[in-house]
Write a structure and sequence with these properties.
globular, Nucleotidyltransferase, domain 5, homodimer, alpha/beta
Chain lengths: 157, 157
């Protein structure tokens, strides 16, 4: 199964695509990148770019499921609204391709990958490297976070 | 100018389309409706429907600008995130058609339409009737609210 993981944000949305095999521990990194949009552009233009880029990647890599990092539970309303808008644009892309979407909170991601909900960023990145059997931490950080949430879905199934 | 007004929500998104003439007080109601989605369906499917229906209406009525009711300033993070997702899907539709988006808060809408930021729902609905020179309050309520925000943009220009 091909999974597209997303770390949502209006300025930077991390994307990590992995492949998993049923009844196998093997997880393969296929692609990772970060969609960036400029604060100089209109919000609608930026959200459309996020939707469009993700839609193209779902199609290109034939993603069959999407894993999205959800909000930190105690976020304030302003940032909840901003991240919500990015998640909305991302979900439209998933809806267009009729693929299921699974959300994981930051706490769940840390717990699934490291066994510890309050793990440090470095511990999480080490876990991503270990699961994907790669030497270097994927860059930029948002793309590594997107791979992390994709791995969560792979381990969940 | 054709303006599409939106009262965003995942379950019900109100839509109101009006036409205004430059240097004229005349505002004409063109169309109003409510896009409904079922809570039984996947969130991504629902957001894609909102995006798709609005995109079709922008195209059908050749809307040149969008007015969206923004969040109430003291909303909690959970509802800010949910409404944010609907606004995100709506903005993708505006971005796809390259039309500008203007946001008005509930307080601004009341102030512009009735002159009073704490106006009651009935006063707002009367103002909508007056501005559009129509006899009955448009139904459902979300569609009337969408016409209200569209009128705000018309009066602003």
């Amino acid at each position: 199964m091909i999974i597209i993981g997303i770390d949502p944000g209006t300025a930077e949305t991390g994307i990590g695509i992995i492949e998993t095999e049923k009844n196998s521990q093997k997880i393969l990194r296929i692609h990772h990148e970060c969609v960036k949009t400029s604060s100089k552009d209109e919000k609608a233009f930026r959200l459309h770019k996020i939707y469009n880029d993700i839609s193209c990647l779902i199609k290109k890599y034939k993603a069959e499921a999407m894993a999205v990092e959800s909000l930190f539970f105690n976020t304030n309303a302003k940032s909840a609204s901003a991240v919500g808008q990015a998640i909305g644009a991302i979900m439209v892309a998933a809806g267009a391709h009729k693929i299921p979407v699974y959300q994981f909170s930051p706490l769940q991601i840390k717990k699934i990958l490291t066994g510890y909900g309050r793990a440090e960023k470095k511990q999480l990145q080490s876990a991503v490297k270990k699961h994907l059997k790669i030497v270097d931490i994927p860059k930029p950080t948002h793309a590594a976070d997107a791979l992390a949430v994709a791995i969560c879905l792979a381990l969940k199934d």
